[in-house]
Amino acid sequence: MLHKSKIIITLLLGFLLFSCTEENNTDLQKNEIENVLDSSKNALKYCNGSEDSKNPYNYVGEIHNEIVNAFVINHSNEKLDVDEIVAVVENLANVNQNFLRIKDEEYTPVDSSIILKGANDFENNFHTIINSLDLSLQAKDKLVTVVDYLFDKAYSSREPNLEDVQKNLIKFENDILSNKGFNELEKRTILSAISTARYSTCYWYNYYGAIKVADNSITKKRKWWQWLIVGVADVGGAIAGSAGGPATAVTTGASASTTAYNLTNPRNK
Fold this sequence. Notes:
By secondary structure, this protein is mostly helical. The chain is built from twelve helices and no strands. The longest helix is centred in the last third of the chain and has 27 residues, at 184-210. It starts with a helix and ends in a 6-residue tail after the last helix.
C-alpha cells in the first residue's frame, strides 16, 4: 500500500522531492518537453471510447479528453494558478465545436472555488462533495463506490491494469443503466462521472506511459500511480460540476484534471 499522505501532499501542494542532480533534472525536463506532443497524440488516439459502453453520456468523457489534450499541448510548460487554469480551460472549451454543441442555457462557468474545494476534499475521497449533492442516498452511495474504487487502485502497492479498470467502470455503468431506482438527474450525474473516469484514466495512462524518461528517474516511478491520481481528480471535478449539467461537468472535470496535472508536473516545481 502506498503511503496515502505522501501522495496527497504531492497533489495538493505540488511538491515533488527529486534525488536527481541539477544536470539530470535538466535532462529530464528536456526529455519530457520533447515528448509531450507525441504523448498527448497517443493518449487521445487510444481513448476513443469502448464498444462495450452503452452510456448515453459517453460524450462527456470524450469532450473532456479533447479539452484536456488541448491544455496539455498548449500549456504544459506554464506554471499557472487555479484561477488561470480555469480561465484557460473555459477558453479552450469555447473553441471546441463538440463542447459548443452540448453547451446550453443550463451551463454554469467553472468557479475556481469548486476546484479548491475538491482539493481540500481529496483526502476524504471527495465524500464531502458527494454528500452535499441534491441526490438520493442510493445515488450518493453509487458515486462513493466508484470514487473509492479508483482511490483504492491508486493507493495499491502495484500498478493496476488499465484494461481491468476499464472493465470495472463499464460494470458500474451497466449497474446504473439497469437500475430503475434512479431519476434522470441521478443517472446523468453518475454516468457523466463514470464516463469521465473511463476516458481520463485511459488518457493519462497512455500519456504518462508514452513519456520517455530514464529508468531510474523519479518520473518513471511516478507513472504507475499518477495516471490514476490525476484521473480520479477529473472525476471529482465532474461530480462537483454535475449540478450544472453535462457541459459544466466537462469543464469542471477538465479544470480539476489540468490542475492536478499542473501540480504534479516536475517542470513546474
